[in-house]
Design a protein that fits this description.
This protein is mainly α. Helices cover about 65% and strands about 5% of the residues. A 3-stranded antiparallel β-sheet has the order 1-2-3. Helix 1 runs antiparallel to helix 2, helix 2 crosses helix 3 and helix 3 packs antiparallel against helix 4.
C-alpha cells in the first residue's frame, strides 16, 4: 500500500523539474517517495495494525484515518526537528530566520504533511478494500 500512495502522490507532485518527460519525473519521484514510505509504513503501520485489529472495527473510515496518521506522522516529526539552514524562504517568505523555523515554515510543513496524509488516507482506503473480509456477499 505505501508504494501505491507514493506513486499517487508523485503523479500530483512530481519532482525533478529539469527532466523533459512527465513519466520519467513521476517514476523517479515515486521511487524516492517509496524509499521513505515503505520503512515508515512498516515501522508504524504494522504495529498499528497489530494493536488495532482486535480493538477497533475495520470500517472504511477507521482504515482511512489510520492510513493518514501512519503516513503523516514521520513528516510531522521531521517538521519538529531544528532546521539545518540559518536562513531559508519559499516564494519570498521566510521559513527559517537565524536558525529557527518561523510560523510560516511550520505552516508549510503542516501543509506538506496534510498532502502526505491524503495519500496515506487513500492507501488506508485501499487497505480496507483489499484486507477487510466481506460478509453477506451474495
Amino acid at each position: 500500500m505505501p508504494g501505491i500512495a507514493a506513486f499517487t502522490l508523485a503523479m500530483f507532485q512530481p519532482l525533478y523539474a529539469g527532466l523533459d518527460s512527465y513519466l520519467e519525473r513521476v517514476g523517479r519521484t515515486g521511487l524516492v517517495f517509496t524509499l521513505f514510505a515503505y520503512p515508515f509504513g512498516l515501522l508504524l503501520g504494522v504495529p498499528s495494525y497489530v494493536f488495532l485489529r482486535d480493538r477497533v472495527k475495520p470500517t472504511w473510515l477507521n482504515c482511512t484515518f489510520v492510513g493518514a496518521l501512519v503516513a503523516a506522522t514521520p513528516w510531522l516529526l521531521f517538521a519538529l526537528l531544528p532546521p539545518s539552514a540559518d536562513q531559508a524562504s519559499i516564494g519570498g517568505r521566510a521559513t527559517v530566520v537565524n536558525g529557527a523555523t518561523t510560523a510560516y515554515g511550520y505552516l508549510i510543513a503542516l501543509q506538506f504533511a496534510g498532502i502526505i496524509a491524503l495519500s496515506g488516507a487513500l492507501a488506508g482506503l485501499l487497505f480496507w478494500v483489499i484486507a477487510t473480509p466481506r460478509r453477506n456477499v451474495s
